[in-house]
Design a protein that fits this description.
7-stranded mixed β-sheet; single chain; alpha/beta; 42% helix; 7 strands; 218 residues; 8 helices
C-alpha cells in the first residue's frame, strides 16, 4: 500500500526517471535493497521507482515514524519494520527483516542510518554504513541490491521551515529525480569488509543517478 501511494504522489512532486544495470531475473529474487539517504523525501522517491519495476519491499524505518498520524497506520498495514535505535530492541528489526526475506520478499534498508549534515539542496555522498546491512546479509545469505537516488534534496532539505516550504512548492517546481538500481552483489563474510563493499556499491549507484541529472556530487 505504501509503495502504491508513493507511486501516485511522487510524480506530482517531481519528474521521476529510473535506470538499472541489473537483469530483470536478478531483481525478482528476494534481496536486500540498500539505498542512500539524503532527504525526508527520498524513501517515497525510492518506493515509487521500485514500484515501477514490480518491487514492493518491506521497509526498515526509524520507529518514530509510527507515531506520525496516518503514516504509522500505513506502515503497520504494510508490515513494515520499526527500528528502535539505541535500545535493547534494536536487533529485533534485523530478525524480522530476515524472516521477511525467507518469505521471498524484498527488504529496503538505509545503511547510513541518518541524513547528511549539509543544509543546502546539493547532492551528498553516502556516509559510512552501520553494520546492519552486513549482519542481515550474513544471516540470510541474500544478495544486496544497491539503489542510488538523486534529486530528492531538491524536494526537501535543510531546516524545518525550509523542508516544509520545499514540500509545499515541489508540485509547482517539479524537480528532476532519478533512481538507479544496480547489479546485486554478494557481500564478504567479515562485517567490516561487507559494510565497505555495500557502501561502495551504493555510492556507485548514487553517482550514476546524480550524473543522469547533471548534479554535482559533493
Amino acid at each position: 500500500m505504501l509503495s502504491h501511494l508513493a507511486s501516485r504522489i511522487v510524480p506530482a512532486m517531481g519528474r521521476l526517471t529510473t535506470s538499472t544495470s541489473a537483469e530483470p531475473a536478478a531483481l525478482r529474487a528476494p534481496g536486500i535493497l540498500v539505498a542512500n539517504h539524503t532527504s525526508l523525501a527520498d524513501p517515497g522517491v525510492v518506493l515509487a521507482a521500485l514500484h515501477r519495476t514490480g518491487i514492493e519491499p518491506v521497509v526498515l524505518a526509524t520507529a518514530g515514524l509510527w507515531r506520525v498520524p496516518l503514516l504509522g497506520h500505513l506502515l503497520d498495514r504494510g508490515g513494515h519494520v520499526p527500528v528502535h535505535r539505541r535500545t535493547a530492541h534494536a536487533a529485533d528489526a534485523l530478525d524480522r527483516a530476515a524472516a521477511v526475506l525467507r518469505e521471498g520478499r524484498h527488504v529496503l534498508i538505509y545503511g547510513e542510518g541518518r541524513l547528511p549534515l549539509r543544509r543546502d539542496a546539493g547532492e551528498a555522498a553516502p556516509a559510512a554504513f552501520r553494520s546492519g546491512v552486513a549482519r542481515l546479509a550474513a544471516a540470510t545469505g541474500v544478495p544486496v541490491i544497491p539503489v542510488g537516488q538523486a534529486g530528492a534534496r531538491r524536494i526537501s532539505s535543510g531546516g524545518n521551515c525550509k523542508q516544509l516550504a520545499g514540500f509545499l512548492t515541489a508540485p509547482a517546481r517539479r524537480p528532476r529525480l532519478h533512481v538507479h538500481i544496480g547489479t546485486p552483489v554478494r557481500l564478504p563474510a567479515d562485517v567490516a569488509a561487507a559494510s565497505e563493499a555495500a557502501h561502495r556499491a551504493v555510492t556507485t549507484a548514487w553517482h550514476t543517478a546524480a550524473r543522469s541529472l547533471g548534479e554535482t556530487a559533493a
